[in-house]
Amino acid sequence: MLIVYDSLTGNVQRFVDKLHMKNIKIADGLVVDEPFVLITYTTGFGEVPKRIEEFVRNNEYFLKGVISSGNRNWGLKFGRAADIISHEYCIPLIHKFELSGNQLDIEIINERIKNI
After folding, report:
1. Per-residue pLDDT at 50
2. What is the CB neighbour count within 10 angstroms for residue 22?
3. Cα-Cα-Cα-Cα dihedral of 4, 99, 41, 89, to 10°?
4. Do you know which Gene3D superfamilies this protein is assigned to (predicted)?
């Protein structure tokens, strides 16, 4: 499964590197023509980053699931971008991980992506 991601602080980038899956970083105008899982970060007070919103609007057809990084210090807003995207596009919320994730997060995501 293709992983499509964006990273603001580098945490998502570090996590994607640990997954060892085919991946592509979001760039302006990117069009994806194969099934993919999105990995995003959460910005502001539990919001979807604008660049991610635009990308998903233009690529929702092949979007199969969403994952988000976050910081548990935000409480209920932890990784909330994934909650919002999952709800708006009726796709599975695969997982949320803190900062750049850990080995258990990698194992969970690998297992869940196999079942998509």
Report:
1. 95
2. 11
3. 70
4. 3.40.50.360
